[in-house]
UniProtKB/TrEMBL annotation:
<feature type="transmembrane region" description="Helical">
    <location>
        <begin position="81"/>
        <end position="103"/>
    </location>
</feature>
<feature type="transmembrane region" description="Helical">
    <location>
        <begin position="169"/>
        <end position="188"/>
    </location>
</feature>
<dbReference type="Pfam" id="PF01943">
    <property type="entry name" value="Polysacc_synt"/>
</dbReference>
<keyword id="KW-1133">Transmembrane helix</keyword>
<keyword id="KW-1003">Cell membrane</keyword>
<feature type="transmembrane region" description="Helical">
    <location>
        <begin position="140"/>
        <end position="163"/>
    </location>
</feature>
<feature type="transmembrane region" description="Helical">
    <location>
        <begin position="48"/>
        <end position="69"/>
    </location>
</feature>
<keyword id="KW-0472">Membrane</keyword>
<protein>
    <recommendedName>
        <fullName>Polysaccharide biosynthesis protein</fullName>
    </recommendedName>
</protein>
<feature type="transmembrane region" description="Helical">
    <location>
        <begin position="367"/>
        <end position="394"/>
    </location>
</feature>
<feature type="transmembrane region" description="Helical">
    <location>
        <begin position="12"/>
        <end position="36"/>
    </location>
</feature>
<dbReference type="InterPro" id="IPR002797">
    <property type="entry name" value="Polysacc_synth"/>
</dbReference>
<keyword id="KW-0812">Transmembrane</keyword>
<feature type="transmembrane region" description="Helical">
    <location>
        <begin position="208"/>
        <end position="225"/>
    </location>
</feature>
<feature type="transmembrane region" description="Helical">
    <location>
        <begin position="109"/>
        <end position="128"/>
    </location>
</feature>
<dbReference type="InterPro" id="IPR050833">
    <property type="entry name" value="Poly_Biosynth_Transport"/>
</dbReference>
<feature type="transmembrane region" description="Helical">
    <location>
        <begin position="282"/>
        <end position="305"/>
    </location>
</feature>
Length: 463
């Protein structure tokens, strides 16, 4: 019944995986370099700057790239209308950003202009990438990720190791990577062919903004739910602790690799399948298998966590392993919430999306403020996990208004129990006993996930 839909989802996922996996693998392999040549404080600073850019990107552009992607999929607008109006909004936001960055530099903020340039490159890249993905250039979208990350790695080695520029060197590498991706997209799609300023009008711009503006507070709140704990850590524990936290987050980012690959393809399938009669069954099938796969990857990472950290980071960062499990759990609930968020986009119900994120943000803030002073860095991971769990539950209830997703709660509960047991096992001093128990719990997780995942994979075959 769903063979063609599942096949297309896998096909798009494969294309995106080439770019995303290549990008993340390169970034992952650079972690030993960063932890060796940057201090905990420096790594904490660049991590804060990176997350700030991610936070401000939808604000600067009024999240218009979300509207561009959604409406190119609908085919109700000419591409020139979408591109021209979106470009004007993006350029106006970029101009304001440069002015604010210059003022910030003038009043004494060390990274004002550099941050503004990085942010402008990020918003222009986001605009172009969402446009090319919407019009079907999925391979180009994938390749730009590899090009950008490769440039970042090369330039960071040059600036941090050779020129010994520290934090500034890392930021210069980020700028160079964004610029390289931008040049590649421009060279391939020749965006000027989509520009016609005669098509720019208040009416056309408002059509885009009515969809995208509700995404701004949602994006901000989502960022706050995901990354605000860094500021709590900075306030309560200091920049060095934030550096440890940033390194600990590199392991859960492996889960994000798989979800990013999947979600880029899923957003297309979510829109395509939304109007079908069996959308509830299809959405439920994909969601439950995403749960299985996420906990399977987490169990595998917990199995090799300690040896991996020995290889991956400098000795001064090794203690970061203790904070990884809660962060991985937070990442799983974040990804599941993100999946449910795609249903709002497919239904064009972006205004409702914001309210769910607000609840998660408030939950996260409350638990971060309470737990970080009490239990340290693990409080940040646990607070995030509870925040995203709240978002997931609320969205499951709210999305029933336009699509019902039936969750298999028993397997999810067993996965959580296995995760808790593996986390407790990691603290056993006897290495043989610890590893033996980890293998047992990992085997149970594999057996639990195996059956449903196998059935899902069989549906790739064409009827």
């Amino acid at each position: 019944m769903f063979s063609n839909s599942v096949k297309r989802l896998f096909s798009n996922s494969l294309i995106f995986s080439i770019g995303t996996l290549g990008t993340k693998v390169i970034g992952f392999l650079m972690v030993p370099f960063y932890t060796y040549f940057l201090t905990k404080g420096q790594f904490g600073v660049v991590d804060l700057i990176s997350t700030t850019v991610a936070m401000l990107t939808p604000v600067v552009t009024l999240s218009v790239f979300d509207a561009i992607f959604r409406f190119t999929m609908d085919k109700n607008f000419e591409n020139k209308i979408l591109f021209s109006n979106g470009l004007v909004i993006t350029l106006l936001g970029s101009l304001i950003t440069l002015i604010v960055g210059g003022i910030a530099q003038g009043v004494g903020y060390q990274y004002g202009i550099l941050l503004a340039i990085l942010l402008v490159l990020s918003v222009v890249n986001s605009f172009l990438q969402y446009f090319v993905r919407g019009i079907g250039y999925v391979k180009l979208f994938a390749v730009t990720g590899i090009v950008g990350t490769s440039l970042s790695a090369i330039l960071n080695i040059l600036f941090i190791w050779y020129f010994k520029l520290g934090t500034n060197g890392y930021l210069y590498g980020m700028v160079g990577a964004q610029l390289g991706s931008l040049i590649l997209i421009v060279a391939v799609i020749k965006p000027w062919q989509y520009v016609d300023f005669n098509l720019v009008s208040t009416a056309n711009a408002l059509k885009l903004l009515r969809y995208s503006v509700p995404m701004i507070p949602n994006a901000f709140a989502w960022w706050f739910t995901n990354d605000a704990n860094r500021f709590f850590i900075l306030f309560f524990l200091g920049a060095s602790a934030n550096g440890i936290y940033a390194v600990a987050n590199k392991i859960p980012s492996i889960l994000t690799i798989f979800f990013t690959v999947f979600n880029q393809a899923w957003q297309i399938s979510a829109v395509d399948e939304f109007e079908s009669e069996n959308n509830s069954t299809f959405y439920s099938m994909v969601f439950n298998n995403l749960i299985h796969f996420s906990f399977l990857v987490m169990a595998g990472l917990l199995l090799i966590l300690k040896p991996l950290m020995h290889v991956l980071v400098a000795p001064s960062f090794y203690s970061a392993w203790e904070f990884v499990p809660f962060l991985m759990l937070a990442m799983i609930f974040s990804n599941l919430s993100g999946f449910l968020g795609s249903t709002y986009i497919a239904a064009k119900m972006t205004t409702k999306l914001f309210s769910t994120t607000i609840y998660g943000m408030l939950t996260n803030i409350a638990f971060n403020a309470l737990l970080i002073p009490l239990i340290g860095l693990n409080g940040a991971g646990l607070g995030s996990a509870l925040g995203f769990l709240a978002v997931m539950i609320i969205r499951l209830k709210q999305t029933k208004a336009f699509v019902t997703i039936n969750v298999n709660w028993v397997p999810l509960t067993i996965h959580l129990i296995m995760t808790a047991l593996m986390y407790a096992t990691l603290h056993i001093e006897n290495q043989f006993l610890m590893f033996s128990l980890l293998i047992v719990f990992f085997g149970i997780t594999v057996a639990l996930a195996g059956k449903d995942v196998f059935v899902f994979l069989k549906r790739r075959k064409i009827s």
